[in-house]
Description:
There is one protein chain. The protein is 66% helix and 6% strand. The chain has helices at 2-7, 11-17, 26-34, 38-62, 72-76, 78-92, 112-132; strands at 66-69, 102-105. The protein has a two-stranded parallel sheet. The termini are far apart.
Amino acid sequence: xxxxxxxxxxxxxxxxxxxxxxxxxxxxxxxxxxxxxxxxxxxxxxxxxxxxxxxxxxxxxxxxxxxxxxxxxxxxxxxxxxxxxxxxxxxxxxxxxxxxxxxxxxxxxxxxxxxxxxxxxxxxxxxxxxxxx
Length: 133
């Protein structure tokens, strides 16, 4: 995206952040796409497709019921990102996996890691308490 801004292919991104990687955040990328930067939208869609390819392999290996996507891009562009990932995964997984999993966006946002660790710690403490009895 920084290269696209530098080359002039993403004028909205260039205006908002230039080609400085430290200023290019998910909210700026969303604004860039909303402002009509087709090159940035293509980059984000391509990244989501690559994730979809990787997730298809994960689904083949682990057969999860749910795949939860989180992070800045997912939060900033949930419809675009989830749509591209889901389409790609569904094209790539073996037919026997169709309909066996869901791909959803994380509901906890920035608190996901902290709440996950807290839940794990609670379960671990309860397990240890039971093993001492």
